[in-house]
């Protein structure tokens, strides 16, 4: 079924639900009974629209669709709307019992605020309670259903309801076929937790973890935040969560300057955001393919690669302060032979040290995609050529040059002694040979506000001179974040004419300049 058709039918379903909705507030979890794995509405006033659909089944064309088509449509709805579809006709009563995707998110039950920090403790308790009701209604009463759950995704807050949610999921994993289960566990304070709050959340989580080992043992994906665990915490998680394929840790650690050792047979993707680890030692992760580090506070290398033979994609994001050393990628990646690398400098000091081709070739000989993100506009770009020199298989180079005020250090904080004043200091580099040529680069994409157009033109000229087979350069306007989304604009004729003229002065005529609309980037 085409995407457009399924979405059209989805809108039709939502309109039918809206037409049959009662005037007063209705909770789908309190108004459904289950019998033999099927849901039956009770104490429900039937609207004229619903009555027509039930009485005149010949006109209920949606209900005549095959099961797989119907599921394809319904599974595009939120879980609340899925429950409400059961009032549309007899056929629809069976839908919750045959869902292949069960997605229950606390965010679906929260008041709609642009800023999640406006949520009150009562809002959070209410959302968590509703998650528990929904989990029980959907999972406990699927007993006997022959339909497997291909995806069970849960998002909830760490709280009194967590254990009951975990036990319900554990029972479903034990009694039903669940192909993939996910937990995203939130804390009531989401940002800037105090040391005491990190410790409290850490103890609360381990109590929850110890109460539901079977639920965690069946997880494929786990996302945690704001936890300070004891020394045995993470080893226990890796030991119990044997099926874990994805792990994301935001502000999680075992104390300041703690060491995280990772040994796991199934883990394929690891995301570390902030936290106070001195180092993450990936000792043995034979299936790891993706690694992302977002902001590290340690003075030396943030991670150490052991046995990671399948590692392909590495993303490193950091704001460099005066205590950070400049990283040598040849030592950090240690012969991992990755194919996709992203480096995000947050519009602050460049924290990688240029190296020669001989040092980089063992880790970059398979590199095909390189993203250099948020390079400050005042930085010279000549240093970036060392990456091209050391990656002979590179096919795509993306570079974003801008001063992103939403992320960079601004105001009085720039006067702090730990803030680097020279953002491109220590980036001296000379090519391995005077006639250095690159034969595989096929795409160069430059993103930015083009305030420093002269630097970007010189950079493009240097790339074109080295990349003998490069024929196209794509110029994009700077991407935006949530806070600066108002700045997103399309190219104007005046802008494209000006940039085309500036680039044509330095770029050979056989290289075409394109101005695409900003799509999905990085």
Automatic annotation (TrEMBL):
It holds the Pfam family LRR_At1g61320_AtMIF1. InterPro entries: F-box-like_dom_sf, F-box_dom, F-box_plant, LRR_At1g61320_AtMIF1, LRR_dom_sf. The keyword Repressor does not apply. SUPFAM superfamilies: F-box domain, RNI-like. Residues 1-23 form the signal peptide. Keywords: Signal. Residues 59-119 form the F-box domain. This is F-box domain-containing protein. It comes from Aegilops tauschii subsp. strangulata.
